[in-house]
Amino acid sequence: DAGVTQSPTHLIKTRGQQVTLRCSPKSGHDTVSWYQQALGQGPQFIFQYYEEEERQRGNFPDRFSGHQFPNYSSELNVNALLLGDSALYLCASSLYGRVTDTQYFGPGTRLTVL
Amino acid sequence: SQQGEEDPQALSIQEGENATMNCSYKTSINNLQWYRQNSGRGLVHLILIRSNEREKHSGRLRVTLDTSKKSSSLLITASRAADTASYFCATDQTGANNLFFGTGTRLTVIP
Fold first, then answer.
1. Max CA-CA distance within chain A?
2. Chain A / chain B CB contacts < 8 angstroms
3. Phi-psi region for residue B96, left (φ > 0), alpha (ψ -120 to 50) or beta?
4. Any CB–CB contact under 8 A between B101 and chain A?
5. In a designed cystine with A91, which of A23, A112, B9, B86 is the match (CB 3.0 to 4.6 A)?
6. What CA–CA distance (Å, rounded) separates B31 from B33?
7. Rounded to an integer, what distance in angstroms lies between the CA atom of residue B1 and that of residue B4?
8. Residues A63-107 pLDDT 10s
9. CB A43 to CB B43 under 8 A?
10. Chain B residue with minimum CA distance to A58
11. Which of B2, B30, B97 faces A42 most closely, judged by CB atoms?
């Protein structure tokens, strides 16, 4: 039973650049949520994708966008990177758009913006 | 913004001892969950307690919920070195349809 996978593991970018992070949900899951976790903090909800649409969004600017594909995998895109975007980006999967039920997390992508 | 706040921020105990960490939150909730995170990697779900439940057990874990005080506690009994991790509570705030995580408790279990 394949768990949640994310790529890449680590990424280094410079200010102003754009980045794309990828996530494949747990086998059988159809909902993907993205979280940002700054050092020493808890994860903060960015948005959720279900049925290829953004269903919920946290308090993040439009520089953060995403996409969900027919196979339920998802991408997180961040444009015009700022130093403050440096964080661990976590993807979580669940079923039927239920982001408040048990979430299954991937290992994360560590993004460093220089 | 983060809904929950864990207490203490850091806890260090000897192997075999019990560890208790607390979570306080600000608004009404549908459920509260606890997650564990090892070394800044992915989170692992431990237990979910619904707002109409007061206590729940899972193996060496015991969770209580007091909705009148807007607080929850996680007890890990007979701790092991492998329990060393950060522990987060996450609340399902009524009407929000997403999870709000606290700031976490960093637990160190000394062999």
1. 39
2. 63
3. alpha
4. yes
5. A23
6. 7
7. 9
8. 999 999 999 999 999 999 999 999 999 999 999 887 778 899 999
9. yes
10. B98
11. B2
